[in-house]
Amino acid sequence: MKKLIYAAIALSAFAFSSCSDDDKLPDVKPADRGTVTDNLGNVYEWVRIGDQMWTTSNAKNGPALADAQYYNNFSWKYVLDDSQVDEYEKEYMPVYGNLMTYEEAVVSAPEGWRLPSDEDWKKLERTLGMSDADSKGMRGEGVAYAMQATDSGCELGLKLGGSVVPVKSYGWIDMDWEWVGEYGYYWTSTVEPAYDAEQTFVYYRRLTANIGTVSRECMRSDCYLSVRWVKDVE
Questions:
Q1: CB 62 within 8 A of CB 104
Q2: Taken in order 51, 126, 191, 193, is the CA torsion positive or negative?
Q3: What is the Cα–Cα distance from 95 to 13, expressed in whole angstroms?
Q4: Which of 50-64, 121-135, 157-171, 203-217 has the lowest mean pLDDT?
Q5: Are 193 and 122 in contact, with CB atoms under 8 Å apart?
Q6: What percent of the chain shows pLDDT beyond 70?
Q7: CA distances to 13, 37, 53, 141, 204 from 48, in Å
Q8: Mean pLDDT of 74-82
């Protein structure tokens, strides 16, 4: 499946050996696991990493991307055309979940859970061995591989599901398509007010195919990214 979209991610004991190709990283194993159900009845597994519980698959609730529209200077247009809707619902969502705007992502979490903040992501990254979590750009060699693992290590299974970014050029809004499987973009709940008073910018995480580092940057809140949830251990 080629298309998705262009763009402008301790209270328990752990065994330490290797979590990726970098043998300096800790081998972080889930201390506990369970399930949580969203408002649409979708069931997700979670794993306990340190003093947090993280879902291990992308959120599938929220408004349908098939209904999303954007405006150019002439009319409103659907983000997905008719030929893409069926592919998105039947092929993309079962694997990669739903893509949501920042505002949609904030309210998507089940009761007691939340969209991870920038600090939540940094806590996870430090637990997985990242020493420069506060930096922007690409950081933490090997940590991205640990985050993507599904049946070893921390078992978070972060997917490379792409994103949808409204691209403004020549006075109108247009959408540009990117390859699924190349990038995975994940919202945080943390707004960066220093960018632009007229447009909300929010921190996100990006994972890239065959690259072990995790990118920490900011993106417009009207973009469509993947969503995970987190909860503190009581």
A1: yes
A2: positive
A3: 31
A4: 157-171
A5: no
A6: 82
A7: 11, 16, 4, 23, 22
A8: 81
33: three-class secondary structure by DSSP = strand
% the chain with pLDDT above 90: 64
Tell me the pLDDT band of 6, cut-offs 50, 70 and 90.
very low
Angle at CA of residue 188, ends 203 and 182, nearest 5°? 80
How far apart are alpha carbons 3 and 150 in whole angstroms? 24
Residue 146 C-alpha from the chain's centroid: 15
Amino acid at 173: I
Of 71, 62, 69, nearest to 93 (Cα)? 62
User: Which residues are CB-contacts of 161 (< 8 A; sequence separation ≥ 6)?
Assistant: 4, 58, 92, 95, 96, 97, 99, 180, 184, 185, 226
Helix, strand or coil, per DSSP, at residue 54: strand
- pLDDT score of 2 more than 90: no
